[in-house]
């Protein structure tokens, strides 16, 4: 079984290394990342600049991943991303009260497991992207009224504030950061890694427990053309502003529940979005025929506009005695859970219903109070129009090819805090019906689906 040996050997070595490192450093002295990553003179220079308002940062994330079964074929990959950032406090630098400038750039290398071996919708690693050097964020931010109003303008992403929770940040699969229903349905995947988009975001704390978010982004991160959108973004320097806009808004409600004598924080965030562009019909051509009908042009009809609605709930389930919080924090000792749901119209979207959820545990490993463990699941339903097109394809071709239904994902992860600034996270993912159950391109008959995939991986993060 030569195909299995390579991923198994690589992943086993990675996991063994992680466990050995975790064990060896379990009693390591708690020290800042700067004390062991770089020389003292550099740390002093860096901290001096930060005290004056100019803070430089660097993060290196790399993944070793292999699928030992399923997908198009079995395989293993190594990929990584360097993230270099500058965060300027304009009040300290030039006396501009409430002003801030932030920018970061990526150096991406390697090839992705999803793109090359599994072909699923929910990208196995959130850092998977085409190799490139690209600008990501570059925006100005202004805070007013003691921080209750914040306005951000420039190139930015939507995934860190919209349709997000703290607990989902533990997981590695990209759908827990930027849900697949948006990454699949929006042009070029929308404003999320690795492509940010010019836009304006407003955040207003209307009360102690209610925060309103609203944003307008350019509706397409990439130039028109064929091929992958990442190749049409010109290293993050496209700065497109003339495409039909994409609007998104949400209201974040914080609350507390009294359970068993404890006050446990939670939040609820309903939201929605609208895109003013044109979208391809998932089933019909401009003549009103099925796209699969050989007598038609095969050119999808254009449908005006698109929208989505969603909701997020996050709840602390348990905290040890003495731990309190104003809002949900997924880094405090205890147990937190999240759930998200989203819907988009089926006639113009590949995914019309999305659900995910998970539970995170912090501080349950003896002697390792910062380590986290999590279990998460995600469900992506293929829209009724796309499924009907599959039935049409069967009818016109006379071949009983697969009809897509849904893609479902499970992830189990353990995040070990080796030292401040150094994380090791071994994880397991299982993907049922990649891309909803599309035909396996390696099967010339077109009758079999891509196999369910079992994935093992190890993510390492170094942060300064």
SSE class: alpha+beta
> What form results from the Cα inertia axes?
globular
Main pleated sheet: 16 strands, antiparallel, barrel
Number of beta strands: 16
Radius of gyration: 23 Å
What is the share of helical residues?
Answer: 10-25%
Q: What proportion strand?
A: over 45%
Low-confidence stretches: 1-32
Order of helices and strands: HHHEEHEHEEHEEEEEEEEHEEE
Distance linking N and C termini = 42 Å
How many helical stretches?
Answer: 7
Name the strands of the widest sheet in spatial order. 1-2-3-4-5-6-7-8-9-10-11-12-13-14-15-16
Calculate the mean pLDDT score and round it. 91
Report on the structure:
The protein has 464 residues and is α+β, with helices and mostly antiparallel strands. It contains seven helices and 16 strands. The protein has a 16-stranded antiparallel beta barrel with strand order 1-2-3-4-5-6-7-8-9-10-11-12-13-14-15-16. The chain is globular, with a radius of gyration of 23 Å. The protein starts with a helix and ends with a strand.
